[in-house]
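In the previous chapter we treated chains in isolation. Here, by contrast, the input contains two separate entities that must be folded as one system, with a combined length of 333 residues.
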Amino acid sequence: MTDKKILFVEDSPTMRRIILNSLNRIGFNQVIDAENGVDALEKLEYEEVDLIITDWNMPEMDGEELVKTLRSTPKYKNTPILMITTRGMQDDVLNAIRIGVNGYIVKPFTPEILNKKLSELLS
Amino acid sequence: MEQRTDMSAVLKKIEELRAFLKFGDEIFPFISELFLFIQDIIPLMVKINHSIKDSTNRLPTATDNILSVSEVTESATQRVMDKLDVIMAELDEFSRELEAKPHLENRIQRIQNEVSEIMYVLQFQDITTQQLEHVNRILQAIYEKFTNLFDSILGVKQRTKVGGEILSAMEKEMKGTDFQQESEQFRHKTEDKVRLNGISQEDIDRLFGS
C-alpha cells in the first residue's frame, strides 16, 4: 500500500476500469480519474497529485496538449507523467519525450510493465 | 434516343466551333486533340460519376455501422468487466476466509491472476475502437470530399452556358445508359450482411405463425 496519489486521464471507460483495477491491485488507493485533458486540468485545480498517467488520443484536449499545458505550469513542471497509448511509432515516443513525458507504455500493456514504470517514476 | 441527341448536340457544337474558326496551323492540332479528348472523356465521366454517386450513397451507412460496432463492443466489454469484478470480490472474500489454509489460498491467488489477465485482455476493445474510429474519420472525409465535388459540379453547371450544357447532357446520358448490371454488381459487393435490429423475435415468430 502506498500513500502516493495518482491522477489518470483516459477517455475509454474500458481502459479506465482496467487502469483503476490495476492501480488498486498494485497498492495505489488514492486514485483520481479524468476523461480528457480539460477534465484533468479542472481536477488538478483542487487536487495535489504525485504522478499523472495519461492517454494520448482523447476528445476535447488530448494527452499531448495536456502535457504541454502541465509542463508550462510551475506547479506541475516536475510531476512525473506516464503516457499509456496506442501510438507505438518511434516518432510518437520521441515527441512524447520532447514535450516532457517521463515514461511511455504502448497498449496493450501488462500489470508487470505498469508496476515497473510506476516504481521507476516514483522512486 | 433523346439523350444521345443531347450528347451529340454538345459534341456537334464543338465541331461547329472548330469549323467556324479560322485556326492557324499551330493551334489546329491542339484543338483537334482537345476535341478528341472531350469526345472520349465525356462517356468516361458519365460512368465515373455514376460509380462515385453509388459509392458515396453507401458511405453514411458504413460509418453508422462502424459506430455501432464500437458501441456494442464497449457495452459487451463493460458487462464482462462487471462479472469479473464480482468474481474478484468473491475471491477476495474467499481468500480472507481461507487465510489459515495456505494451499487453498495459493489456488485462489492463481484464479485471481487468471481473472486479472482476462481484464487486461479486454484492452483490445479500446484498441479496436480507436482503429475503427480512424477508418470512420477517413470514410467521413471521403464522403465530404465527394459531396463537395458534387456541389462544385453544380457550380460549374450554373457558371457557364457551355459547362451547363455539357453537364446536362452528361446527366441525360446517365439516365439513358443502362447501369443496372454494374449497379447490381456494386450492390452485391458492398451489401451490408450484418443487418441487426431490423426485426424483433416477436415479429419473426409472428411471421412464422402466420
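Residues 5-122 of chain A form a domain with the Rossmann fold fold (CATH 3.40.50.2300). Chain A touches chain B at residues 12-15, 17-18, 21-22, 25, 57, 86, 107-111 (CB under 8 Å). Compare these points with the single-chain example from earlier in the chapter.
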